[in-house]
Structure formats: C-alpha cells, structure tokens
Amino acid sequence: MDRIGPDGILEHIPETGTGEVRTAARALNRLSAQLKQAMESRMRLVAAAGHDLRTPMTRMRLRAEFIEDDAERAKWLSDLEELDMIADSAIRLVREEVGVDGAEPIRLDRLLRQIASELRALDQKVELGELPPLTVHAGPIALKRALRNLIANAATHGGGARVALERQGDSIAIRIEDDGPGVPPELLARIFEPFFRVDQARRKSFPGAGLGLAIAREIVERYGGKIAIRNRKPHGLEQICSFPAGEPAR
Q1: Tell me: the pLDDT tens digits for 131-187?
Q2: What is the maximal distance between C-alpha atoms in the chain?
Q3: What CATH code is carried by the domain that includes residue 218?
Q4: Model confidence, pTM
Q5: Could you tell me if 187 and 180 are in contact, meaning their C-beta atoms sit under 8 angstroms apart?
C-alpha cells in the first residue's frame, strides 16, 4: 500500500506465497486495475467532451458575428470565449493527470525569477523576497505551469503577489502571499476543486475556467510536493508549496 503512486494506482503485486497472501495480492491487483480503468475512462470522457465542444462553439461564433446589435454581439462572443477557455482548461487538466514529464534538477530561485518577469510583462504585480539557490527534482515545464498558476492567482485576485523561498529541514517551501479578501473559511476545503469559484459574481471581472489551482495541485503532488492555502490576518491569502529538498544547488 505504501507503493501507491500519486495517480492512486498500486503497482502490480506478485501473487505468490501462502493462500491468504495470494488472495490478498490478487484482490489488490484487481482493485488497482479497476481504478486505473475508471480513471482512464473519466479522462477520455473529459478530453472528448472538450474536443467535441469546439465544433459547435465555432459554428456559434460564426453566427454571432452576424448579430447586428453591437452590445448583443459582444455578449455572445464573450460567453463563447469563456466556454472555449473552459474546454481548453479541461483538456489541459487531463493532460496533466496523464503527463509523464521527466523529473530533473530545477533551480527554484531561477524559475521563480523567470515567472515573475513574465507576469510583470503582463502588468501583474509580483514582488520577490529571499530566493536562496535551492533545487528540486520535477518536470520543468509542468512545474513552471503549476507555480505560474499559483502566483498569477495571488496577483490577479489579491492585488499583487509576494513570493519567497526557504529551506525547512528536509523540505523546500515556496511562500506566496497577497493582500486580497481571502477565502471564506467554510470554502477553503473546496478551493482545489475543478471549476470552483469563491465568488461567482466576479467571473466577468476575473475571467478563467477555475482550473488553475486544480492543475497546480495535480502537478505538485505528482512530484512529491504539497500545497496548503490559508487565510492571513487581517486579510489576504497565503499559499505554501513544499517539496522534498533536492541536491544542493551548484
């Protein structure tokens, strides 16, 4: 059971030994195979739905262009753009769940500076604190996507992100803080749910599919990390992303 991977699948257990051990191993192998089949079926369904939505959305977009009223046409195109974003994010989430981006040593301080520079170029406020030269093992493309999602979330909804990096014993912690309104305590447990929005009324002000945090957690946990989110006092949010420490940086 300790060998269950981040995807929830148990590697094959040799069906040898006493009768009871063989029976237990056979049952666990059967359970693992059923879980794998169910997960693959779910991912195929989500991916197929995302792809299949593209065709009718393209037709609707073409028809919307012929709406004479400018305001009404803009509303239709805005809604279709949001639908397209949701479909694209759903497909991306499935890809992250099945992705096998090879792990390699990554200098987190360099990666965080790169992400901050890219977000600042998009007029998002990102401040960098202490960034000691620390290394983790992860997929470079996937990890960048996860950390970018977390930092962009703070910059977008919290009025700006403050990012710091520190060593904590055998782990490395990335701390992302903001001064936004935070999250109602009763909703914190749901914040990583796909398509979850804290405030549905702010969808138009902050466009997106609500999958950024779900994708980030999927990636972080794949490489042995964890994400914790909690409210700050008197206001704001703190996101802490921790990983097992890699080899010392060179």
Answers
A1: 999 999 988 888 998 999 999 989 988 899 999 999 988 899 999 999 998 888 888
A2: 77
A3: 3.30.565.10
A4: 0.66
A5: no
